[in-house]
Write a structure and sequence with these properties.
- By secondary structure, the protein is an alpha+beta fold.
- The protein is 57% helix and 7% strand.
- The strands form six sheets. Strands 1-3-4-2-7 form a five-stranded antiparallel sheet. It has a two-stranded antiparallel sheet with strand order 5-6. Strands 8-9 form a two-stranded antiparallel ribbon.
- Strand 10 and strand 11 form a beta hairpin.
């Protein structure tokens, strides 16, 4: 791309329809607009900054394209000003990644490995200095010395700094001209088509975009390693880091999904030994329960037999173990990322057997599912409102740097979305049914009786909420990611149909094809989607052990959907540098710590784990009589008035006062929370201490890079001579060094 311009396939078009401000130039960047809206001063100023310009008008009275390129002198000047990295010495790639070495030792074929041609060379680098040009590799080759992404970055910076009006009015930069409608688009060009040619071609002859499509963005590559070296070379470090993090997180989800599925299946296998559920199903009319509402009638405990059995899947000792496991998993995952910076029942038959009484007792359950679906729709709608509100609030704060602006915006959006997505699960888990009162003395709010959990308990309602919100959001997001770019591209092509017609059927040029693509919307929504998912699989995992499995399945699709968008459907974004995933890591750490506390309270106050444990210890190890133990008698005045002798779930005496068991259980619950929190956080501190923030191999690489930089940039080379032993140690270290990027590739 950066060599001589390829000969035109339609020379008469070049001659008749192209107006050049200078001689034909290489295409670093493209501005698109209508002739009447060109900002002449802006164009003059970017010319004064040294950029080469070429204006293309495919046909009369149609869209104009302004192609921009930075000559060598401009590239050198801005490379030093922007502290771009320049190559000092090539470093070898490791032959195998971690999983490949493990599989090789186990003599297991590695189906995830894939040979990707033209793997970029990795270099030791330092900040570019014009005065030390001769010290850098390849400096004599002016055409290819700066990478394509570096050239894009330099042109982007010039466009962002160029004044078109009054500086005191902030009339600066192409971005504002885009907002004002002076330009319709501004983007760097893709490197050719992504489709493979019809004829047979050697893999080494594919362009970089074709390589990414053929070896990464296709669905058939869902089980292959991501070619992160190629992604970084084509899209820059920021986008490569996102895909590295997403791949790393998805890989870590595999053990969590396996354990969670095992816990869920173990609940199915042990369902037949659930003594409380057996007592409920066999109780007949023995337990007459008080009405669930003012106009309802008493009902029998046996009516909720199916819900009692299903509820055991989400409330058995295995879920407690899984909560502890996921707490350790979350923090260990973040520590390792930082180091690199995842008896069965036929319910339909049972429902038929129980008849119309079940329909009455299941009304609350059906209402909960319906309300969860409506809640999901409102959550998605309010999410757009909260994002717009956060953007406006952040603009009012007038941050000095783009990084400060992005961090503040990200934090606000996450806080809004945290409340938006997690408020209803928090309500069901910790507030619903807590302030109901007791028969004859029910708590009210605005004259209405406070809401109670359904007959099956709050935990199964929480599981239903989590399933509908998490899975529904994932499905809707994936459909949107698949459909919306295609709809936008179709609308863009339809809008340009008249332009194509005016061209008389001529073959579109690269810049015209890229203009038909969708503008890249960045990584914010992608990060937000996965971070919210991380909250669902950690904060409420005690109630929904299958959450990691659904997250894993979603992320397998997410990687390919995002890859396809960036390679095939988005205009090429400007490559950005990044050292880590930014403020998102801080949010993930906060979520992992919140999850420990929330799961402790969930097990203590929402689950029946501790009441059953207390009953086993004090009364019966086989839980015989447990159901009767958890039920209280309504006060005589309430019973004899209209309903007879009815029961309700609570630890109260006949006068409605709390019994001694209630206070004993409260002490057990509080003690469990303290013990759970202290044990988990103590182990997490040990994990934090055991896993170094910077791995030894990366530390050696950094030291060697600094050493080479000093050698290259020092004016007095003699002053940098070191002992032979130090040089020998450095050479020895070099053979064992893996770069951070290589380690991410292994993940």
């Amino acid at each position: 791309m950066w060599g001589e311009r390829a000969p035109s396939t339609h020379p008469e078009r070049e001659q008749d329809q192209m107006c050049s401000l200078r001689a034909p130039v290489a295409d670093d960047y493209v501005l698109v607009g209508e002739l009447a809206r060109w900002r002449d001063r802006f164009i003059q100023n970017i010319q004064s900054a040294g950029l080469l310009l070429e204006k293309v008008q495919p046909a009369k009275k149609t869209i104009h394209y302004l192609k921009l390129s930075a000559p060598w002198d401009v590239l050198v000047y801005y490379a030093e000003e922007l502290c771009l990295r320049a190559p000092l010495q090539a470093q070898p790639h490791p032959d195998f990644n971690t999983s490949a070495r493990v599989l090789q030792k186990l003599w297991v074929p590695n189906v995830m490995a894939d040979f990707v041609p033209n793997r970029p060379v990795d270099y030791y680098t330092c900040a570019f200095r014009k005065s030390k040009m001769e010290k850098f590799l390849g400096s004599e080759d002016h055409q290819n010395y700066f990478s394509i992404t570096q050239r894009h970055r330099i042109v982007y910076e010039i466009l962002a700094r160029t004044v078109y009006g009054k500086r005191k009015h902030a009339e600066v930069g192409a971005a504002r001209l885009l907002n004002e409608g002076a330009f319709k688009a501004a983007f760097p060009l893709h490197e050719g088509p992504f489709e493979l040619p019809d004829y047979e071609i050697s893999p080494d002859q594919l362009n970089k975009r074709q390589i990414l499509y053929h070896y990464w963005a296709r669905w058939s590559k869902w089980y292959k390693y991501q070619p992160l070296d190629h992604i970084r070379e084509y899209f820059g470090e920021k986008i490569a880091l996102y895909f590295a993090w997403l791949g790393f997180y998805t890989a870590w989800l595999l053990p969590a999904a396996i354990v969670g599925t095992f816990v869920f299946v173990s609940g199915i296998m042990t369902m037949g030994s659930n003594t409380p559920a057996k007592e409920i199903c066999e109780s007949g009319g023995h337990y007459l329960m008080c009405p669930l509402c003012e106009t309802c009638k008493p009902w029998n405990m046996s009516d909720i037999c199916p819900m009692a059995q299903v509820g055991y899947l989400f409330d058995h000792p295995g879920t407690v173990f899984f909560s502890v496991f996921m707490s350790f998993w979350a923090v260990t995952f973040l520590e390792y990322w930082k180091q690199l910076s995842p008896e069965s029942l036929d319910l339909s038959v049972m429902m038929y057997e129980t008849g119309s009484s079940v329909l009455r007792t299941q009304a609350g359950n059906i209402a909960n599912i319906s309300s969860s679906m409506v809640n999901l729709a409102l959550i998605l709608l309010m999410g757009q409102v909260y994002t717009a509100l956060a953007e406006q609030l952040t603009k009012w704060e007038m941050h000095r740097t783009q990084t400060q602006y992005e961090d503040a915006f990200t934090f606000k959006v996450f806080i809004f979305q945290f409340v938006n997505f997690y408020s209803s699960p928090f309500y069901v888990a910790f507030f619903k049914g807590r302030f109901v009162g007791y028969p004859g003395h029910y708590g009210t709010l605005f004259g209405m009786r406070n809401e109670d959990c359904g007959p099956g308990g709050c935990l199964i309602e929480l599981a239903e909420q989590l399933f509908i919100i998490m899975i529904g959001k994932q499905l809707i997001n994936n459909v949107q990611e698949f459909v919306i770019p295609k709809v936008k591209a179709w609308r863009q092509k339809k809008a340009l149909a008249s332009v194509k017609k005016a061209q008389g059927g001529l073959e579109p040029q690269r810049w015209e094809q890229d203009y038909e693509l969708v503008a890249c919307e960045g990584l914010f929504d992608e990060y937000l989607e996965i971070v919210l998912q991380f909250g669902f699989i950690t904060i409420f995992v005690a109630a929904f052990p299958l959450a990691p499995l659904f997250a894993l399945l979603n992320n397998w699709a997410e990687v390919r959907l995002d890859a396809h968008k960036f390679v095939c459907e988005y205009r090429r974004p400007v490559a950005e540098r990044a050292q880590n995933i930014g403020v998102w890591f801080i949010i993930l750490e906060a979520l992992s710590h919140v999850s420990v506390i929330v799961n402790a309270f969930l097990i203590a106050f929402t689950s029946d784990f501790l009441p059953r444990l207390l009953y086993r210890y004090k009364f019966n190890s086989d839980l015989h009589g447990y159901v009767n133990f958890t039920l209280a008698y309504a006060p005589p005045s309430y019973n004899y008035s209209s309903h007879g002798m009815c029961r309700y779930k609570a630890f109260r005496d006949e006068n409605g006062s709390y019994t001694l068991v209630y206070w004993e259980l409260l002490a057990v619950r509080l003690g469990f929370i303290i013990a759970f929190e202290h044990v988990v956080f103590s182990v997490l501190r040990v994990i934090d201490w055991m896993v170094p923030d910077v791995p030894e191999s990366l530390e050696l690489k950094v030291k060697r890079e600094r050493y080479l930089a000093k050698q290259a940039l020092a004016d007095n080379q003699e002053a940098l001579l070191v002992s032979g032993s130090w040089r020998a140690a450095q050479v020895s270290a070099h053979s064992g060094v893996h770069t951070l990027h290589s380690r991410l590739y292994e993940a």
